[in-house]
């Protein structure tokens, strides 16, 4: 019975029994290409589950190793042993093969093969092709041999012999020139074929290469085209390998590669790595194969830039770690595109998978990254079972029955995966959860499907997504799921169906879902009231659902926070950076809240502030607030609104106005204060003004238009088509979010615009601007030594990078929701310093950027440095005016065990611009514009350098470029003072508390018995 006829019979039997059970031992009888034509998704799942069971590990005395179309007919082969042994069955296809693992019992055992053709000659191998034995079965189709059980062995049969052995230790590379099949290069240890072959090539030496030079290795479905066992440093390239059981097979080998080969019609595996490490398969073309790449118990391997066409099983990975499958193309209506089982630390990146029943299927995988893939026309795009801590980002799922589907069981569910920034288009189901919890779905777009997200499980987070034009529902919760958080999503046309009788949360910290174009769903009840019927046990509810004691809730907000409501609260304001929003022209405070949260973008999913370094790495150092007011300012008073916010919430460090109306050019205050702080070092003006317009709310179309000469221009209010006379500030919502981040760079970090005005030049040195310099841009020489691009606010100032948020926040959008521009390293370093400077931390010394610092009064003259005084001050941090050059002077803080802190620096000397003499005529009249890049350096300067305080510091030293000490000062007695003022008078669980005050915000010299004047301020008491 041929395979297709048998398979059709099998299908009809399944259908007649109305059963999806499948005996996995019959897998090798199946023709998977026929299966794809005849079976439905549930039947294919049964077969797929069988495939993913391999390799099978078994122990005992009798083993069925498969049914094989082997030799002249199909054989159902088994082996039996006198002693118990442990074996591994690597696959269900191909010739009879198994691995013997070491046993703790008997050292050897007779083993019998059964089920082969009777009275037939076979070629028997153990471990490599040198071990060949010719065996003949008896009349029952059996033969026996003695099997060693003390070590690991690979055992297999073939129906034909013959092998070429390449050995770099032999003249001419062994059989390479010895049998006239190739040219041997002893320098590169390379055999280059000169003829086609119908034989296996085996590597017998390490660090050896085979270049087939386009020649063909052919077979009749037997053995391996190229084989290596227990070798390293091998390379196989430019081969055409046809009709082998394994095209290229690395067994217990490492650090080897197979590149630019064409492999056709492998009945088993085109490329195979077993018990191997450091294997790379790159640039290969695999056509009409059963399996494209198969890995068992391998590590540190890469499968990249290959093309798998008409493969039933594309890439199969089992019991492996540190796996990279990147930029491959896999197409054909086959069963599995990329499959993994018991895989850890894997990377599936940038692949295109088209037409598989299961494009990506993973069981028991952890800590894997699946990003940038295109998955289309599949029954199940990405399937995950018993998996956790994986990141799934930036993929496109198009035209699949299921974009992502989770399965689990009662013993081990899938959990803690992050699904972020993916695009789901025209799928029946976008993301489908069963038996999976603690997963995050954020920043994705679900468009033109039937169902966006299905939740049949508990405790997942779905927030910050867009659901557009889905036919049935954007999101659906089934009974009796509970504790899912679904908030801050946008729904268009179809919204949420909550069919669960148990509690799920649709409003977090007063941020709920938004519904447009007829979509409906649970709303976020913002204000604190007693009407919603939800009560917490302590009747002192915070944030959403403030039922219960409403009066206590209102009093809490009024007494603790004044007129500000927390949006993100990470801790007390004394050691956090507090940023407040005030709104104008919003229809209600709920809308104002979600827009402010979009700007914060705390999870970094939508290109807001916390999506970019260094804010993303320091998010827990910030608190975010909004005003209780829903104000309506005009063009004459909107700038004073931020002062109103500081008065209402005096603990704020920064304030931002978000305005629907009035409209104005987005801007920020660069600096405020006395003359000395007009251009402070890395500190902005604490105020920013960002128009969002009705465009952002979706009540009028983009672009956001503003007449910068007349903010009240009725023709520039964004209610119609784009007006050329208006200045557009953003073409869609993300432009507005990034504009806010740009302005925050000004107001918080004191960063200047990095675009230029070709008309303006500035005769002054931008020494106090952290991100602008003059040629040759020494400010950032240590991190970007060649970065010096003309134009930074002024035409004659220079910037470090051409594409940054400070140059162009309206960046070009590219696929997978990615953007070209960020802050760049120069700005990131400056902002990191500003964050550290703004944090008031404890004095434990665990954080070097704490509230105290040593001030060194330094002078520089004639290339020499001197230090006149050392003090201890509060609110100290590393000085922004001294450039960390990586060379020059070195400042060290030392303790008992050696150096605690060191810093390489050079002084940014005052640059004096002088007009060249040749621009004046003899009468002193200017004849041309001066070149302001002509400058001279002052040879002397004075600086106050601030160094972090460390409690265990003994001395501070300064070294010159010759490593000679030019300054040393003992600072053991230079310490802040903690002292007890008195007994607090309260007890808590029998523990007394005292108030501890610290000298703060005042310079302190060495404490040598003098009187100390203490300035007492606010005190804080925390349990």
Largest sheet: 40 strands, mixed
Number of beta strands: 73
In angstroms, what is the radius of gyration? 36 Å
Helical content (DSSP H or I, runs of 4+):
10-25%
Low-pLDDT runs of 5+ residues are 1-20, 525-561, 672-682, 813-819, 840-850, 875-886, 908-917, 929-938, 978-1023
Derived from helix and strand composition plus strand pairing, the structural class reads mainly beta
Please tell me what the overall shape is: globular
Percentage beta strand: 35-45%
**Terminus-to-terminus distance:** 80 Å
Q: How many helical elements? A: 10
Nearest-integer average pLDDT: 76
Itemize the secondary structure elements and their pairings.
Blueprint: H1 3-17, H2 32-38, H3 41-51, E1 56-70, E2 73-89, E3 97-101, E4 108-114, E5 121-126, E6 128-136, E7 143-148, E8 153-158, E9 163-166, H4 175-178, E10 182-185, E11 190-193, E12 200-203, E13 209-211, E14 216-218, E15 224-229, E16 235-237, E17 240-242, E18 246-251, E19 254-259, E20 262-264, E21 269-274, E22 277-282, E23 285-296, E24 299-304, E25 307-326, E26 329-331, E27 336-349, E28 352-354, E29 358-366, E30 369-371, E31 374-376, E32 380-385, E33 391-393, E34 396-398, E35 402-407, E36 414-415, E37 418-420, E38 423-425, E39 429-434, E40 436-437, E41 440-442, E42 445-447, E43 451-456, E44 461-463, E45 466-468, E46 473-477, E47 485-487, E48 490-492, E49 496-498, E50 514-516, H5 550-561, E51 564-568, E52 577-584, H6 589-600, E53 622-627, H7 641-648, E54 654-659, E55 667-669, E56 687-691, H8 693-697, E57 705-706, E58 727-728, H9 733-749, E59 756-757, E60 789-799, E61 813-814, E62 818-819, H10 825-838, E63 852-861, E64 864-874, E65 889-895, E66 898-905, E67 911-913, E68 935-937, E69 940-948, E70 953-959, ...
């Amino acid at each position: 019975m041929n395979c297709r006829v048998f398979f059709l019979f099998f299908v009809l039997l399944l259908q007649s029994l109305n059963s999806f059970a499948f005996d996995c031992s019959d897998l090798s009888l199946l023709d998977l290409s026929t299966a794809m034509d005849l079976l439905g998704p549930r039947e294919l799942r049964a077969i797929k589950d069988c495939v993913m069971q391999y390799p099978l590990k078994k122990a005992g005395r009798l083993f069925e190793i498969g049914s094989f179309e082997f030799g002249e007919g199909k054989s159902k082969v088994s082996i039996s042993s006198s002693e118990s042994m442990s074996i591994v069955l690597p696959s269900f296809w191909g010739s009879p093969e198994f691995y013997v693992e070491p046993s703790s019992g008997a050292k050897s055992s007779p083993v019998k093969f059964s089920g082969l053709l009777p009275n037939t000659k076979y070629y028997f191998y153990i471990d490599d092709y040198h071990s060949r034995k010719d065996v003949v079965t008896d009349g029952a189709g059996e033969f026996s041999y003695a099997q060693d059980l003390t070590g690991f062995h690979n055992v297999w049969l073939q129906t034909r012999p013959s092998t070429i052995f390449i050995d770099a230790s032999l003249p001419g590379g062994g059989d390479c020139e010895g049998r006239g099949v190739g040219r041997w290069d002893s320098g590169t240890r390379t055999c280059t074929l000169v003829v086609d072959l119908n034989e296996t090539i085996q590597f017998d030496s390490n660090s050896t290469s085979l270049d087939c030079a386009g020649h063909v290795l052919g077979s009749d479905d037997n053995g391996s085209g190229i084989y290596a066992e227990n070798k390293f440093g091998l390379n196989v390239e430019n081969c055409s390998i046809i009709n082998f059981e394994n095209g290229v097979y690395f067994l217990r080998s490492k650090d080897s590669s197979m590149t630019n080969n064409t492999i056709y019609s492998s009945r088993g595996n085109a490329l195979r790595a077993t018990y191997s490490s450091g294997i790379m398969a790159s640039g290969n073309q695999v056509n009409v194969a059963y399996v494209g790449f198969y890995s068992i118990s391998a590590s540190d391997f890469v499968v990249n830039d290959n093309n798998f066409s008409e493969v039933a099983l594309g890439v199969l990975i089992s019991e492996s770690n540190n796996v990279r499958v990147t930029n491959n193309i896999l197409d054909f209506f086959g069963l599995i595109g990329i499959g993994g089982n018991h895989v850890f630390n894997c990377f599936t990146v940038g692949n295109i998978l088209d037409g598989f029943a299961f494009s990506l299927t993973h069981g028991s995988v952890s800590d894997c990254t699946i990003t940038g893939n295109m998955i289309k026309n599949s029954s199940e795009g990405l399937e995950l079972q018993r998996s956790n801590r994986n990141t799934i980002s930036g993929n496109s799922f198009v035209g699949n029955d299921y974009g992502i589907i989770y399965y689990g069981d009662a013993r081990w569910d899938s959990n803690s995966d992050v699904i972020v920034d993916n695009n789901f288009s025209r799928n029946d189901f976008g993301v489908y959860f069963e038996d999976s919890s603690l997963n995050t779905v954020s920043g994705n777009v679900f468009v033109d499907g039937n169902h966006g997200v299905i939740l049949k499980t508990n405790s997942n987070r779905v927030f910050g997504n867009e659901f557009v034009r889905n036919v049935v529902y954007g999101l659906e919760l089934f009974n009796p799921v509970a504790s899912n958080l679904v908030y801050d999503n946008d729904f268009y046309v179809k919204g949420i169906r909550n069919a669960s009788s148990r509690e799920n949360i649709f409003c977090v910290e007063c941020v709920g879902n938004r519904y447009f174009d007829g979509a409906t769903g649970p709303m976020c009840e913002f204000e604190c009231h007693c009407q919603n019927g939800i009560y917490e046990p302590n009747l002192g509810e915070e944030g959403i659902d403030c039922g219960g004691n409403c009066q206590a809730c209102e009093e809490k907000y009024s007494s603790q926070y004044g007129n500000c409501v927390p949006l993100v609260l990470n801790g007390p304001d004394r050691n956090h950076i507090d940023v407040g929003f005030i709104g104008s022209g919003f229809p209600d405070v709920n809308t104002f809240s979600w827009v402010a949260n979009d700007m914060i973008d705390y999870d970094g999913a939508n290109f807001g502030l916390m999506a970019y370094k260094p804010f993303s790495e320091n998010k827990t150092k910030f608190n975010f607030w909004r005003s209780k007011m829903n104000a309506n300012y005009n063009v004459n008073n909107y700038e004073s609104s931020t002062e109103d916010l500081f008065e209402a919430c005096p603990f704020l460090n920064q304030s931002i106005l978000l305005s629907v109306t009035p409209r104005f050019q987005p801007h920020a205050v660069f600096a405020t204060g006395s003359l000395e702080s007009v251009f402070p070092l890395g500190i902005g003006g604490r105020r920013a003004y960002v128009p969002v317009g009705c465009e952002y709310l979706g009540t009028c179309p983009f672009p956001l238009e503003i007449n910068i000469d007349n903010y009240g221009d009725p023709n520039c209010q964004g209610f119609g088509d784009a007006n050329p006379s208006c200045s557009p500030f953003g073409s869609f919502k993300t432009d507005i979010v990034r504009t806010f981040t740009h302005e925050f760079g000004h107001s918080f970090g004191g960063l200047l615009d990095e675009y230029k005005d070709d008309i303006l030049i500035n005769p002054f040195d931008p020494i106090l601007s952290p991100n602008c310099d003059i040629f040759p841009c020494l400010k950032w020489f240590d991190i970007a030594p060649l970065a010096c691009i003309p134009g930074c606010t002024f035409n004659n100032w220079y910037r470090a990078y051409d594409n940054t948020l400070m140059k162009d926040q309206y960046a070009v959008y590219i696929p997978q929701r990615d953007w070209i521009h960020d802050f760049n390293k120069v700005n990131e370093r400056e902002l990191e310093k500003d964050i550290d400077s703004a944090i008031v931390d404890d004095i434990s010394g665990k954080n070097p950027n704490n509230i105290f610092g040593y001030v060194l009064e330094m002078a520089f003259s004639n290339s020499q440095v001197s230090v006149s005084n050392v003090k201890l001050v509060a609110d100290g941090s590393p000085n922004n005016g001294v450039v960390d050059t990586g060379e020059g002077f070195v400042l060290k803080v030392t303790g008992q065990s050696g150096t605690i802190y060191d810093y390489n620096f050079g002084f940014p000397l005052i640059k004096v611009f002088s007009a060249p003499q040749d621009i004046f005529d003899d009468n002193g009249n200017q004849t041309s514009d001066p070149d302001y890049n002509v400058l001279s350096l002052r040879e002397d300067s004075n600086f106050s350098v601030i160094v972090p305080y460390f409690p265990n510091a003994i001395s501070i030293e300064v070294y010159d470029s010759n490593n000679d000490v030019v300054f040393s000062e003992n600072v053991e007695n230079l310490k802040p003072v903690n002292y007890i003022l008195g007994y607090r008078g309260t007890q808590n669980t029998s523990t007394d508390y005292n108030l501890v005050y610290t000298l703060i915000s005042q310079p302190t010299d060495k404490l040598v018995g003098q009187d100390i004047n203490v300035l007492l301020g606010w005190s804080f008491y925390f349990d």
